[in-house]
Automatic annotation (TrEMBL):
UniProt protein name: Uncharacterized protein LOC120254211
Keyword Nucleotide-binding in annotation: no
UniProt entry tagged with the keyword Disulfide bond: no
Subcellular location field: Nucleus, PML body
Gene name tied to this protein: LOC120254211
């Protein structure tokens, strides 16, 4: 068996394992109680209850904080944002600006990528943090990481699930929450930060494998919102591996309007960077009982009065090197 065939075979085995894990979890969700803790073997994802990571340990007062109950006619708003792990560029001011965006748009669920232990602490000490009762990452876990993805939710979380990617072995993976919103079927909200295309190795094979692994797992659930930094480039990765009823929210709702969330032309903070205009961040959805209503880009304005220096130039500072996305869905009656 050649190297290419071996890689494809390994990828197929990985997808098969996580699909089997998804089936196991789906059955458990239909049979078990909210307090149930699953301990699958090492071939399957790690599952924990949403209560395990309730963010009550925040130093911000949490008195009176409650889960939000969403009726069958309500909207759900989800934010996805790569917050940029570079702590040398006005990290306190940038995270405060992202917090202002959280307060302005008031998402029900937040998907963050590139959170560092320091950024976690900055968020945790912010006034908006107390609104999000459920966190996929505890303070103890955050302190041990380099940078990581995390989910925050105002809505009741039944389970958090994490699936480490095996190709390549790394801290990257698929992270998701099983959301309770009154439907008989669960809604899965997931995030990931796929392998970065760092020259000279663009890592397309690994990125495609990770995308297929993620979608192979998520395919087993009826209602899925998968948002994050996909690092996707159609020129080297091909089309995102969508099949059947999967939809890419931006082209579905915005048509041909460019959705470049990493744009060295429109983002003045990046004007000294290698020219790049790509739709790296996306929302991918598979919805049987919900409908996509709107998607918008956020974080495109410079922070007033704040500047950084790069290659002898004085540059404005934005909340991140990426723009964020907000997806709004409705629950079908």
């Amino acid at each position: 068996m050649g190297n290419g065939e071996s890689s494809l075979f390994s990828s197929a085995l990985e997808v098969g394992a996580v699909v089997a894990g998804a089936v196991l979890i789906l059955r458990a969700l239909s049979l078990g109680s909210q307090s149930e803790e699953l301990e699958p073997d090492h071939d399957f994802p790690r599952v924990s209850t949403g209560a395990r990571y309730e963010s009550d340990s925040s130093p911000v007062a949490t008195r009176g904080r409650r889960n939000i109950n969403i009726s069958q006619t309500s909207m759900i708003k989800i934010m996805s944002y790569n917050v940029w792990s570079n702590e040398d560029v006005e990290v306190k001011v940038r995270m405060a600006a992202i917090g202002n965006l959280v307060q302005k748009h008031s998402p029900d669920i937040i998907l963050f990528q590139e959170v560092t232990p320091r950024i976690y602490k900055l968020f945790q000490s912010s006034s908006w943090w107390q609104l999000y009762k459920h966190s996929s990452v505890s303070p103890e876990e955050a302190a041990q990481g380099q940078y990581f993805c995390m989910l925050l939710s105002k809505v009741r979380v039944k389970k958090f699930i994490s699936i480490p990617f095996k190709n390549p072995p790394s801290e990257k993976g698929l992270f998701l929450a099983v959301i309770e919103i009154g439907l008989n079927k669960p809604i899965i909200v997931a995030t990931s930060h796929l392998k970065s295309p760092n020259p000279p190795k663009m890592h397309s094979e690994e990125r495609v494998s990770q995308a297929k692994t993620a979608l192979g797992f998520l395919q087993e659930f009826p209602n899925v919102i998968f948002g994050g930094d996909m690092n996707w480039d159609e020129n080297i990765d091909g089309a995102f591996p969508l099949h059947g009823v999967w939809k890419d929210a931006w082209p579905e709702l915005k048509g041909r309007k460019n959705g470049w969330t990493f744009d060295t032309k429109s983002n003045p903070m990046l004007q000294c960077s290698y020219p790049l205009q790509k739709r790296l961040d996306r929302f991918i959805c598979k919805l049987e009982d919900c409908s996509m209503k709107n998607v918008e880009m956020i974080g495109k304005k410079a922070i007033p009065g704040i500047f950084c220096y790069n290659k002898g130039k004085v540059l404005p500072v934005l909340p991140s090197d990426h723009y964020g996305l907000i997806l709004t869905i409705s629950l079908d009656a």
